[in-house]
């Protein structure tokens, strides 16, 4: 029948008679259980990755943004209260968020506000000053959503413009 007889390997410490270069058995020498385990493992991993890829919003958070209730500017010497609203992607108020107002190009101390149930926070900008020889400036806002929520502030927020009195 033309089958080729293979020599029986012998163990010799002094001179090896076979090498990997001469081995033409391919995976025949591997245990079959290892090959089956490898194939089943790769197939299982592929199925799990496909299932995870099919879930739309797995682990994503909702972006929050800042809206101004009145104008988007204040005057340099204005001491009136200014209201901002923290909203989610559906324009609904975000309660219990911390809003931090810091100096952009205007000069001021940081002011911290907390939103109520309606998502609104009031600020009193008392000591806002513009730099010398500047007609406008800006106040920047940072939002810290409640820690136990699915909200995040990853995008830049609107800035409040500060203008001169006159």
UniProtKB/TrEMBL annotation:
Which interval of the chain is the signal sequence? none
The yes or no answer to whether the keyword GTP-binding is present is no
Q: Does the keyword Metal-binding apply?
A: no
Keywords, A to Z, come to: Membrane, Transmembrane, Transmembrane helix
Provide ranges: composition bias, Acidic residues: 144-156
User: Where are the stretches annotated Disordered?
Assistant: 144-166
- Record field: transmembrane: 30-52
Which intervals hold domain DUF7382?
A: 62-122
Name of this protein = DUF7382 domain-containing protein
Query: Which organism's genome codes for this protein?
Result: Natrinema longum
């Amino acid at each position: 029948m033309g089958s080729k007889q293979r020599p029986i390997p012998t163990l010799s410490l002094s001179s090896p008679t076979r090498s990997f270069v001469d081995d033409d058995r391919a995976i025949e020498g591997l245990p079959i259980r290892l090959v089956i385990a490898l194939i089943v493992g790769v197939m299982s991993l592929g199925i799990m990755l496909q299932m995870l890829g099919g879930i739309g919003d797995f682990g994503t958070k909702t972006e929050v943004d800042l809206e101004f209730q009145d104008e988007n500017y204040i005057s340099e010497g204005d001491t009136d209260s200014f209201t901002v609203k923290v909203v989610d992607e559906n324009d609904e108020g975000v309660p219990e968020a911390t809003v931090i107002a810091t100096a952009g190009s205007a000069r001021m101390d940081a002011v911290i506000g907390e939103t109520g149930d309606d998502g609104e926070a009031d600020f009193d900008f008392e000591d806002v000053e513009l730099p010398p020889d500047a007609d406008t400036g800006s106040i920047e806002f940072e939002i810290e959503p409640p820690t136990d929520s699915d909200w995040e502030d990853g995008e830049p927020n609107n800035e409040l413009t500060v203008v001169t009195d006159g």
